[in-house]
Design brief:
The protein has 147 residues and is of the alpha/beta class. The protein is 27% helix and 39% strand.
């Protein structure tokens, strides 16, 4: 029945040959995005090398930032809704050849805020940020796999 509607499982991403031995050049080696990207690249069979000299590709992350902004406030000027956002800018090169020009990606998630549930809302923000990071990594890997 599923095959009749055109649905097809996505399956595992296959990385192009150029990405076999990749040097990861992050702006922040301790960011959530960098950690998740490393894990997913290794899971996809990419060997991460320590220097760009013995790599087949260089994945540069030029911007890696996250924050939140207030979307709405109550009549008493208390924030009632926030937006979590995460922005990355990355590119892929092989030596002097640019395989993928700089890509700028921003994902956002909104959540309501209640001052009576501070601990729960803090956890919700953390979970939303984790989900945004995983989605960003998925998008980056999908774009790289189409090289």
């Amino acid at each position: 029945m599923l095959s009749g509607c055109g649905f097809q499982l996505q399956g595992a991403l296959t990385m192009p040959v150029e990405m076999q031995r990749t040097y990861l050049d992050p702006v922040d080696k301790h960011s959530q995005f960098h950690r998740e990207l490393r894990l997913q690249l290794q899971a996809a069979g990419v060997e991460l090398v320590d220097t760009p000299d013995n790599s087949t590709a260089i994945l540069s992350i030029r911007r890696d930032e996250t924050d939140q902004r207030v979307l709405s406030v109550s009549g008493r000027n208390v924030p009632t809704e926030y937006q979590v956002y995460y922005t990355v800018v990355y590119s892929v090169a092989r030596g002097e050849e640019v395989l993928l020009p700089p890509q700028d990606l921003t994902l956002t998630r909104d959540y309501t805020y209640d001052t009576t549930k501070v601990l729960g809302k803090s956890r919700e923000e953390s979970m939303l940020r984790d989900a945004v990071v995983k989605d960003l990594v998925r998008i980056v890997l999908k774009q790289i796999s189409s090289l």
